[in-house]
Amino acid sequence: MNINISSLHFKTDKKLEVFITEKVEKLNKVYDNIIGAEVSLKLENTDKPENRTTEIRMKIKGNDAMASKTAKTFEEAIDLAVEALKKQLKKIKDKERGGSGVKNMLFLDTSEVDIEEI
């Protein structure tokens, strides 16, 4: 998967880039058909301590999945965004498979069917 990391008005250090790459690559376990990811980091100009925003856009076949989270640290914002994307990707995967679990399965009672009638 190709991961593009960009930051506005500051330069990311290698440690943060490795952290981002590891977290985003784990999303491949949830959904196989990820083409790539775009990660944007920016410092918000606010008085609040929660001024670090991470936006992650997952490129997948059909529609893209996107999450944007703001927190005190970029690591925390990345964790929150990745968790939100996990939920989205699971929903997309279930939808592609025609739903989830037993509720969409049809069970036939074959104990009363006479095979010769068929």
The N- and C-terminal alpha carbons lie at a distance of: 51 Å
According to CATH, the fold-level topology is Double Stranded RNA Binding Domain
Shape: globular
Taking Cα atoms only, what radius of gyration do you get, to the nearest Å?
21 Å
CATH class: Alpha Beta
Largest sheet: 4 strands, mixed
Poorly predicted tracts of residues:
101-105
Strand content is 25-35%
- Helices and strands, in order, run as EHEEEH
- Tally of separate domains: 1
CATH superfamily: Ribosome hibernation promotion factor-like
Average pLDDT value? 85
Query: Structural class, from secondary structure content?
Result: alpha+beta
Second CATH tier, the architecture:
2-Layer Sandwich
Q: Strand order within the widest sheet?
A: 1-2-3-4
User: What's the helical proportion of residues?
Assistant: 25-40%
Describe the 3D structure:
With 118 residues, the protein is α+β, with helices and mostly antiparallel strands. It has a single domain, classed as Ribosome hibernation promotion factor-like (Double Stranded RNA Binding Domain). Helix content is 30%, strand content 28%. The protein has two helices and four strands; from the N terminus they run E-H-E-E-E-H. Strands 1-2-3-4 form a four-stranded mixed beta sheet, covered by helices on one side. The protein is globular. About 4% of the residues have low confidence.
